[in-house]
Queue: 3 jobs
Job 1
Amino acid sequence: MMKRFLFGVLFSLWTSLAAAGVNCTMPFTFVPGTLADANQVNANFAAAVACFLNAAGAGNNNDITALLALTTPLSTAQGGSSIYIGGTSTGSANAQVIAAPSPTGFALTRGLSILFTAGFTNTGATQINVNGTGLVNLFRQSPSGPQALTGGEVVLNDLTWAIYDGVQFQLVNSGAQYGGFGPLTSLSSAAPDLGTIASHNITFTGNTTITSFGSSASTTFPLYRLNFSTVLVLTHNGTSLILPSAVNITTASGDNAEALYLGSGNWQVISYQRGVGTSVVSPTPLCGFSGLNVNNGASNSVINWSFNNSVLINPTGNVPVFSTAKSGSINITTGTGGTSTAGGMDGTGPGNNTFTYMYAIYNGTTWSAVGSVTTPATGPVMPAGYTFLCYMGAIKTNGAGNLYGTRILGNEARYVVGGANVTQLPVVVNGVTGTTCTATTPTYAAEAISGSTGAAPLWVPSTAVAVDLLANSQFSGADSAAVLVAPSGPTTYNGFPVSAANTNPPPLYALTTSNPSFGRLLLESASIYVCISSASGAVHAYGWKDAVNAN
């Protein structure tokens, strides 16, 4: 039994060595059926052990991948590792050196890689020199193929792994942008082809209108994150640039979006977020103010304005923008030379006996205001860069082009007696007007009262929805008059007959025995209808309610 055991052990050792590809010679050969001498057996054991010990050192085994006796590393084809371990890189931020990696023998062979600790944070295009093979470009992986580094991809003290692809090294991981959109990279809106840069994380500069994000982007990785640092217009066209709600978007600083490349130069913005957190578009946008206060006091040319909160819109894109308290002024003597000027006029002076329509404006950074002779139905010529606006009221000039003293609170406007060029409440009409004012059926005379340009009696802007009037029966002299004022005519309302009941009086009147009477008429047209029985009667305008969304 002992013989059989010893023979089995030797046979097992022998076959194991043979299977491993190790060629060993035993000093004795044993023949079945014969006695084995103990010395011979011991000699064969000793030879087998020696063979094992000498096999790796002799380089006789290509199948063994990790033996301490090897002085030359196995190739990757032989089962050796393709990863070389380096220390901390030296050199400089954008020309880093990795000397004497382990194992030895690194060469610029496709598939070999180097793992090292970054000794610097790179600041731009970067090269590495591994094992003295010379500086070679270090690129990062991108949806558009290997791309040069731009800075920040290799970070001080981070483990950095790069694989040689036969031309350059490629980062296996690329720092902060690993798994993301890449580093934030600036791109001019004048040349907005996203495929021309490596990153999918773009901040746009400039103010050029964008109708597409170009045709060279990758459809394999089609998603891009966009940031806007300026005011510009994204134009919806349903093909090359599909926008939310199918309307144009005027960007503001801090806005963000995600765009999906559809191929063939076509893009869809799948999300858009305002930097201030407001809605992107509104199908029925409204602008307006809370705490609106506009007045010129004693000034002939400067209008001061303020509000507590506001919503302005871009008329083209139906885009609202919100603000907290703002204030400023409009000087009607500036911005009159054909160039619209923030804080002045929109290129045209107000002239004489003309209403200046005032608009709060915004350019994505600065809140201001501009005056215009153009009504809100059309709007002003905007100063360069300004796209958001909201109408906030109107003030009239006199025959010398100077402002009438006016105060506007919300949508209510009043002429201020004692203010600039207002010594008394403006007179719409005085003296005998119309006929038979005290008869049952008087004849009313139409008096124009609202408009944009014209001398008295135009005392309220064309945007006014109501006018505040005073019926004065004792405007001049000791005589007294019957003063009748109505929003329509000529025979809609009764007069004041002495001997008959007054079943249908006008909304506003003053009789010979009455004091002046104040009232508001909703404007049914640009005129009011007046009947004054004698020279002592008059109708005064002291204010109006404007079509301003404000309080």
Job 2
Amino acid sequence: MPKQVFKLENFHGGLNSSADPRDILDSEASDVIDVMFDEVGTVRTIGSVVAHGNADEQLDNTGASTSGQVPGAGLFYFSHDRLGASDKAGGAAQTGDEYLALYDDSDAQIWIYSLADDDWDDDTNAANNGAIDFLGKSTSAAARPSFTAIDGAVRVSTGEFGKYDSGTDINMGSHLLITATALTVDDGTAFVVGNYIKIDDEILFVSEIATHVLTVVRGMFGTIDAQHNNNTSIYILNMNRWYGYVNNNFFQTTAGTAEYATAKWYNEAQHLRSFDELGIALALDDSSAASPDATALVENKIIVSYWLADDGFWSGAYWIGLTPVYIGGQEGPLSTVGTVPLQLNEQILNVQLYVCHPDIDSATVATHPLKDDRIIGVNLYTKAFTSDEWYLLQKFDLTKGGEHGWVEYNDGQTATGFWTDGSAALADPSSLDSYEKTAAVVTVTPGTALGTGRKGIVRVSGFRVSPLYANIDLNSTSAQNTTLSVVNPAPGAKSTFVLEVLDENYDVLYTTQVEKDIADSGASPPEYPEGGGYGSEAGGSS
């Protein structure tokens, strides 16, 4: 039987969700999404079109023109919990807003309309003042920007993949050496910090600009450092952009005070850069005798302070590497610290992290010292000299730090942060009989105060239940006595007990050993429940 056409002309019955879809009138619908039937014979979208002035006028308000807009691109809707996206406001309330993003072909900027304000960016008609700017851009031809919004941020691409001519060349007098990081160009105004540029087949990152001299990081994105002739053309790569709200309190002290707080809409390259790309200097500092001094404390630098302790399991040559951790837990590429590996021989490796900023002696950091407000942490890796595999050794949270937070440090505090002339001692237990439950006093004397708010731990090994821990004040120079409940070990002359003083990250600051004669009591070794704790038959505390 040939197919028959059944024509529906009336829709004004509207939505009928109470009846079975098979038992509704021809003029009714069982399910609809974002449409209405308020006009007979018409199905149309919910809402209405409201003219906010002439279309050309609206484009003029942003600097955009109708001729430069590419159909199907350059316009995007998104919503956000924060106000202020239209003018990069800081401290924006979490009452929510809806936005339109519009590409401005006259200066390659993205302007944003706020529904709450019913207006575009507050800085309308100002050059290069859109909410989102492209570092790689072309205004000579219409772009095809594409957008996506996820995890509280908008990401946008120009749609102009590849490169465009900056209009300026190398001006080195001869050529750019393979090892050079200072690139002189004809016109430095053609570039901005953050540009990725291409010379021949090499990609470079622009970290600083001083008039016509660019400070560059060589060999980006797997390209090879190469020599480039004078007067060679320089191209700028189009890079995707990230736009979102950043609200963090960085470098919180033990009192909960943030050394650097940020609450703002933030526009940055989507690409997660390494510390090398960001222009952050990385250095190793042997802090076995003193902490980093004034010569080491320079802006935009991370210092990995280290010292070694005996009786460890590290033997061989090891490299240290750092990665920046961005909002969302993503890591940037790894950068190697130092030019030579660390040499260890059955030792313990201890590390502390120093993050330097321009106002080293200031209590308040003016800008993020790692140059990207999205960076919320640093991960430290290590690998053997002959290996290609890196292993995660330590995570540093830039917002909270460790258990005791971050501590301010300046060039006058080289005697803090490490152990110099302190001591630790273990008195004889009340009983020296084997397997006896008794008490022993451990005494720790820091000698030199290690800094305000510094808290540490003393760890005692050698007893039947071992190790045992006690808290100490690392900023006190007085002798600190702690009584430990212990169980003596097996009988033996010159039984060895190890005392270690640890910092907040369990780094070993000081180690000493003592020997004691444990008499044979004739008692059998005590038995403890498997998986249980010391102090009760059931395994819990009593």
Job 3
Amino acid sequence: MRAALRRTGTARRSCGQALQPGEFRDRLTRDVFNTDDPSDRVGLLEHTLLKVIAAEEADKKLERAIRKGDVHRFYNNDWIAEAETKGVISEDEARMLAEVRDLTARVIAVDHFDAAELSRRQPAQHATPSAFAPPKTLSPPNRMTMPTPLPTLHDWRLSVDYEGIAWALMDREGERVNSMGRRLTEELGEIVKWAETAAIHGEIKGLVLMSGKPTGFLVGADIREFSRFATEPQVKEVVKETLGLFDRIEKLPVPVVAAIHGFCLGGGLELVLACHYRIADREEGTRLGFPEVKLGIFPGLNGTVRSIKLAGPMDAMTAMLTGRMLRPTAAKAIGLIDQLVPTHHNLRWAARKAVLQKRRAKGAPWWKQMMLKQPVRSLLAKQMRAKTAEKVREDHYPAPYRLIDLFEQYGDDPARMRVAETEIFAPLMASDTSRNLRRVFMLSEMLKDEAPKNGFKPKFVHVVGAGTMGGDIAAWCVVCGMQASLQDLDEGQLKKALCPRQGAVQEAAPRQGGDRRRGGAPHRRPQRQIRQARRCGDRGDRGEARGQAEAVPGP
């Protein structure tokens, strides 16, 4: 291997010396007519070569900027001018690269003919008896095929680069994050329709799905639009449309790559699973998961079938039943992600390579797929029910139990599982349980929106429950200078919370102290408050200590 690398390096250096003007190249071209006159056909090659060598450093700067995503090399974009505007290259370097681009186009250009000269002859209906028969009438001029026009979009940005790779960026208009609303889904359908036509005509080599938002990929369905799912027929109608769209993505004749940065949850992850290849970055804000079970449902866009196919039954069912968000490394380990890159700056370059190399996911290994066979599948389902019963009751949360039933009955038959998934999903979606859980979720999101964004500093904290954790929370709030109160049904718990636990906090409080003038946190007064609270607890008083640590009996 080392010898081969040395030979490769030697060959590379030899080629470089041959291309660079100098003594080595002069010996190779001795007695050979050579000119750099661009008006001469031979001289044009030499002239272009010299210009390419001179612009090599500027070209490297431009390539690095394109790989980072600072400059976009789209077919309808002058990336050299964009690089100059963003300060990647200087004005002279931009002029040099533009000249090289034009000269290269002259070198590789072929003769162009008028469309009228390229007319086709009509195919002969019958063989002519004589070789001297008059020629058939020529057909009308053959017109040049125009590229498929891009659709007009609001929640997506669609473009095609010079290599024929289509880039679809989700950027929902007027929203902080991307979610699967009606318009975003409909426009995705238009993109898929355009990609189907462009792929047939050979206009694109692949399609890449990315997010145009800085903090997230696709957080799932838009819960605000769940009013459409009032009845089971309505649920089935909407689900059927989305399932057809995802199947069309899966059947595209060109590679479809998902480049993931940020949160990819619920329906977003199901969309990603319909792609042929998945790439995610390792950044802290990137998470993947199926949180549907927390809303009283389970993945209903064939996410059950596709996740089991890629990750195997155990890992896929665990992810769906728990609703936990997975780190990119964990998702890669179980097979939901095919490739990891360090940062989101590397996503575009990695997606490009995946498209050009026509990469596809391998799926779960054979030993994982063997778990889908009976009687192993029934044993796994039994264990899943036992673990689920330890957490929730079936009459309160039926969704995980219905998911286990689906897996046990149709786990080894993907076609039947796809159909049964919708039949089981629709009643759950229209149930009161799911409706109430979605309402709780919406209320929690409203509370988050109402909270002050900047400069909020709480002054009073009320803790319900004076156990181990509650007592510590109240004590530390006092240490930090806030007024705290405790509430509990057991008077003994209140005494414990106001005595030994706050004494332990007192020992840790000096480490939190400081001088106001030196920028530290002044916690001397809270220490005295803790001592007062401890003395109040010793006396059995359920009152407050200097108005800072207050014990409130429960109802």
